[in-house]
Amino acid sequence: MGQPIKIIGAPMDYGADRRGVDMGPSAIRYAGLADGLSRAGVDPVDAGDLSIPRAEERDPDVEQPTQGHAKFLREVEDVCTRLADRVEAILDNGEFPLVLGGDHSVAIGSMRGSSSDADLGAIWFDAHADLNTPETSPSGNVHGMPLAATLGRGAFADMTWAHAPRVNEESIAYVGLRSIDERERDLLRDSEMTAFTMADIDERGMTAVVENALDVATTDTDGVHVSLDLDWLDPKTAPGVGTPVRGGVTYREAHAALETVSRRHERDGILRSMDVVEVNPILDEGNETATLAAELAASAFGKRIL
Ligand SMILES: NC(=[NH2+])NCCC[C@H](N)C(=O)O
Ligand SMILES: [Mn+2]
Ligand SMILES: [Mn+2]
């Protein structure tokens, strides 16, 4: 059955404005994640959830970086530090870490852990660029900042729990971008990251775009982290997310994308870690977004129609 997949839940909502995303891991498990992975031919082992301090005990105004604004940064640091350690230990054990969010700030921990012993590329399946720093963020929500944190931008420069020096911007590719804040656009334009927007998908088709993104993420790296934010999909298909943006990826395009990743992984063994984030069961309709998250994970690990 190949490399065992270690499922680890990070039921965190500190990085998002909308409560409920902390229930994502339960909803994705309930939707049949482990069964789907087994049917895809891999061996899932559920390592349970990280413990997260109770939301009711938080105070949004306690801790702030010296510059800018980032809500609950101390709580995010605590969770991501523990998550990074877990991800690193799973990889040391020869297993594959599959992290279930939680809001997208969990990716700070996933990528830090996954890159501790490796040069790591990343594919960011998301409507958003998640490149705000505390200085540029219009919302102060850390789920809009994980890539800036990983790259050590702005106020994150001195935060060793966040900055992952073995992730280089040249090895990061976005797929499906369609919502970028004004100051974030300048950060993106001035960076070496590769951004495939929805317009690129319209023009060239999903498979070609993802092949290209994989080329970017595998050049001069030891492996790839896949970060799947469910708001990447169109809200009609994935309504259970806190920051929906219309004009997103369709059901079939999403499966085609993850199947393309899986085919490259079967050929070249490129994948190193993955997270599936931003499923909010309170905003969902009949758990369909969590079900989609579970199905897309199965596609990434080899599930095929025939
Ligand atoms: N992972 C996400 N859903 N991010 C949404 C970010 C939205 C907006 N760009 C912000 O900084 O607040
Ligand atoms: Mn998003
Ligand atoms: Mn995101």
TrEMBL record:
Co-factor note (free text): Binds 2 manganese ions per subunit.
Single annotated GO MF: arginase activity
InterPro entries: Arginase, Ureohydrolase, Ureohydrolase_dom_sf, Ureohydrolase_Mn_BS
PROSITE patterns tied to this protein: ARGINASE_1 (PS01053), ARGINASE_2 (PS51409)
Cellular component per GO, a single term: cytoplasm
Coiled-coil blocks: none
Entries under PANTHER family matching the protein: ARGINASE (PTHR43782)
Protein family according to the UniProt entry: Belongs to the arginase family.
Protein name in the entry: Arginase
Species the sequence originates in: Natronorubrum aibiense
